[in-house]
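User: These chains co-purify. Model them together.
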Amino acid sequence: MSDRIKKASRHVNQSEGLIFEKSSPGKRAFELPPLDVPPADAARALGAQHRSGGVENFPEVSEIEVLRHFTRLSTWNYAIDLGMYPLGSCTMKYNPRVNEFVARLDGIATEHPYQPQSLSQGCLKILRLLEKCLLEITGMDAITLQPAAGAHGELTGLLLIRAYLEKQGNPRKKVLVPDSAHGTNPATAVIAGYEVENIRSDSQGQIDIAALRDQVTPDVAALMLTNPSTLGIFEQHIPEIAETLHAKGGLLYMDGANMNALAGVARPGDFGVDVMHLNLHKTFSTPHGGGGPGAGPVATKRILEPFLPAPVLVESKDGTLALNHHRKESIGRVRAFTGNFGVLVRALAYTLAYGPGIRQATEDAVLNANYIRKHLEGVYDLPYSRPSMHEVVFSDARQKKNGVSTIDIAKRLIDYGFHPYTTAFPLIVPGAMMIEPTESESREECDLFIDAMRAIAEEAASNPELVKTAPHTTRVGRLDEVGAARKPVLRWKPATRTEAAD
Amino acid sequence: MRYLPKSPADRQEMLASIGAKSIEDLFSGIPERFRLREALSLPGPLSEAEIIRYFEDRAAENSRGYTSFLGAGVYRHLRSVVTDVILQRGEFLTSYTPYQAEISQGTLQAIFEFQTLMCQLTGQEVANASMYDGSTATTEAVLMAERVTGRRRVLIARTVHPEYRQVLRTFAKNSGLIVEELPFDPDGTLSASAMGAALRDDVCAVVVQSPNFFGCLEPVASLAAQVQPSGALLVVAVTEGVSLGVVRPPAEADIVALEGQSFGLPPSYGGPFVGVLASREKYVRQMPGRLAGQTTDSRGHRGFVLTLATREQHIRREKATSNICTNQALCALAATVHMCLLGKEGLRELAHQNLSKAQFALEELTKVPGVRRVFSAPFFNEFAIELPRSVKLVNAALLPEKIIGPLALGTDYPELTKRGLVCVTETTSRAEIERFAAALRRVLELPV
Amino acid sequence: MAYPAQYRYTKEHEWVHAQGATATVGITDYAQHELGDVVFVELPKPGAKTEAGKSFGTVESVKAVSEIYAPASGEVLEANTVLADAPEKINQDPHGAAWLIKIRVANPAELNSLMDAAAYEAYIAGKAKDASA
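Assistant: Joint model of the three components:
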C-alpha cells in the first residue's frame, strides 16, 4: 500500500491530555496592566452576589502550556490547508489569508455596533458593497446580511414568505421539501410554523413535475429547492416549477448551498426564484473553523423587500449610509446587532479578489467534478446519468456486494491522506458517496484523489476486511459512538481524572 | 487567478480527457436562456495589496482614535495575541465540522474543554458547543423550556437586552408562544411581585438577564426559588461573561444562555460572536446544538466524538430540537483559548478591575452637577446615569472631544429619557475616565 | 431468534403479548437488528393513552430514530424503567426482558387483525428478498 500512498500521513502520535489535567494553583498565562484606580471592595459592592474564590476548577496554566496544548491539538486535525476535502455541498475551498488580515485591522475588528453612524461609515460601506455584489451575482432585488448561517437564513426566508402571504390574507399551511433536501430544510419549515410535505424525485433525480402539479395546492406556501440539487444536477424544469407555484400563489425558495456551480454563469433571479439564502462559508470562501462561524444572507425579489429584518441599510443623496430601523412591515430581528460582520468582511474581500472573473472559479469547480466523475465512472456505481455540475454522487452498490459500505470506503480514504467525502447523503441514494472537489484543487490533487478511490475499489474487491476496519494510520481508531450516546460524558470533572491517552 | 491552481494546459488536458470540447459543454445541463453571456458587473479583480488598501481606507472612516463608553451587550476587553496565533493555525481555521472524528480530534477535544469551561463558569451541569450568539441562544432556551414543560407562555423581564427580546418575538410569532414582558422596580431589577402575579401554571419560562441591560445584578437564587415551584423554568441570559469572575454564577437557573463575546472576541461591529446554552443533565436531550462527548477508540484510547446527534436536523429533520447546523466553532475556540490564558486568577483579577473601574467612573461622573445614578442595585461594569438634558445632544457635544458617550436609553425605554448607559472595562484608563468626567462637566455648563 | 408463538406482530415490527385485559408490547428482533446498537428509548408515563397505529415513543441508535407504534388502543400501566440505564437490552433480549410498555387494552378485538408468528416470519422474509433484489 505504501507506494500507492503519495501524500504524507499527518497524524502525530503526540500524547496530550486535557488542559485541566495540566492545571496547578499559582500558574498564570495572562497578566493585566496594574489597576490605576482605587480597588473596589467586591464583597461590599456585591453582597450576597459575591463570588470570592474565582471560578472553581478553572485551569491554571502558563502561556507556553496554553500555546503548546492547542498547537498539539491542532496537529490532530485535517484541514483545507493540508489537502482536499471532497465533501459534497460543503464547498471546502481555499480560505484566502488576506481575508483574515483585513478582518483583523484596527478600525475594522474594533468597531461597536452602537457607535454613532457618522463614525461607522467605513463599516456601512463594506456592508453596502457586499450587498450590491451579492445582488449582482444572484440576480435578486433586495437582501439582508443579518442571518448568522445557512439554516438561519432559511428560517428568515420562510418568515419573509409567511409575512408576505399573511399580508395577502392567508399564510397557508404547508411547505414542500424534496426527499433529497438537506435536513435543515424540513427542520426550518417546522420552526416557521409550517407542515412539511415531501415531494419525491423522479428517475432522473429531478423534482417530479407531475407530482408537483398535484401537490401544489392553495395550501402550499412554498417549495424549498436546492439548485443544482444535492445530486449536483441542475433542475431542468425550474421554469415550470416556478410557474406551477406562482400560478397557485405560492413562492419558490432556493437553498443556495450549491451556488458554487452557478456564480457568474447563471442567476437564480433569472430562473424564477423568489427568495434564497447564500452560505458565505461555502461559495464565498469564509473559513469553516471547525464548524463555524458562517453567514447566511437572504436575497429576495422586490415583493418581499418590505418584510426584510430591520434595520435595513439606506443610502442618502449625498452618499451617507444609515441603518433604518423604521420598517413597519418587517418580520423583526432574527438576531442581535448587524450580523456576522467579520464573516461579511471576508466574503467581500474574496469577491473583490475575483471581480467579474468569478466565473472562472465556477468553471474550474465544475471541471474538477466532471474530471473526477469521468475517471471513477467505471469503478463506482453512478445512479443518475444526467450531467453533473460542481459535485457528483456515486453509490456503494458494487462494493456492497462484498459488504463494503460508503462509510468504510470513506474511512479508508483517510489512510490515503484525504478527508472523506459526504457519506449516506442525499437520502434518496442508498449508500451515497457525494464528492465536491471545488475549484481550489489542482489537477495533481484530483489525480491523487482518483488514484486513491481506484485503489480502494480494488481493495474492496480483493481485501474487503482492510477497508471495513479502516482507518489504520490515524492517532485514534474508530471511536465508540454507541458508548458515547448511551452514557454521555460531556465535560471533564476533577473526580474522574483519567489517564492521558498514550 | 492566484486562488486557482490550474494552468491553461491543465484545463485543456482535463477537458480532453472528459471528452468535452470546451467548458461550455459542461454547462449544457443549464437551459441556454439562463446562461449568462456577459461577465457580471462587479468591482475588481483586486490584487492582495489593493484589497488591503480598500479595507484600510474603510477602517479610517470609522471610530479610530475615539474613547468609547459603550457596552450594552458588546464589550471591549483586552485580548492576548496568543489567541490569534492559535486561531490562525490552518488546522483550526480551515478544518470542517468534526463529523469524521478520527481526523478531527483537535477540534473535538477543544470543544470538550469549551463545554467544561462553560459549566464551570455558569455553575451548570452540561453546556453545548455553541449557538450563533446570546440573542438566539436565549430564544433557543425558551423553545427548550417549551419542549420540557409542554407550556406556551413565556415571561421576559424588560431588563433583558431589547434586541434579545426582539429576536424572541420574531420567533414566537410563528410558534404559538405567548410572550409577556415584566416591568422593573426602581432599583433597576425585575419586579419580583409583578412576576409572582403573572406566574400561572401555563408558563414555560421566566427569562431574566444578569447583569441586566442596565448593568444591574438580578437576584437569581431568590428568583429561582419563586419560579421553579410553579413548574416553569428559569432562564438566565448573560451578556457579560467576565462578570462571572467575581459574581456568583446562576447555578440555580434551569437554563443559562450566555454570550461569550467577552472572552477573546473583538466587537467586530456586532459579530461573529458565540452563544452557549448550559443546563441540567436531565434536560440534555432537549438541548439544541452540537455536543462533544468523551469515549474510547478500538484500542482503548480516550477520544472525543460528536454525540446525541439524534437531536439534530440531519437525523431528525422536521422533528429536530433546532434547525441549527453551522455554529460558531472558531469563536468558541477563541473563547476557550482566552479563558485558558486568563485562568482562574486572571479572570478573577480581570473581573475585579472592571468592577473597580466602573465604581471609580460612577464616582467621578456623579461629582458632575446634575448627574446621578439612576438605579440602586449592585452592578458590575455598567450603570445608568441621569443627565439634566438630552443624552443625544450631550453625546453630539462630546464627539469633537473624541469621546463616544453613554448609550441613550430613551429609544428602547420611553420612560427613561435623559438617561444613558455607561460601560467601563479594564481597557479604559483612569486618565480617560477623568477626561470623560471633565468633558461632561464642560458640556453641561454650556447653555442649552 | 425465535418469534414466540403466543405473541402477535405488526407491520411496523412491534410485538404484543395479550394476557387477558392487559398486554405487553415490545419491538421485534428484526427491528432491533435493523436499528443497530440502541442508545436511548423514550417511553410514555403510566396513565398515558395509546392509540392503535399511532406512535407512543421512540427508539434511537447513534444515527437514526425510529417511532414505535401502538398495536392497540389503551392506557399505559407500566413502562420498562430498566431500559433507561440499559438500552442495550433491546438488542440482547427484544422479546423478553426488553419489553417496552404494559397497557390495559381498550378493545381486545383489535389484536385479532395482527399477524401471528408464522405470518410475521413470512412477512420479514419477503422484506429481505425485496432488499436484495
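Chain C has one domain: 8-108.
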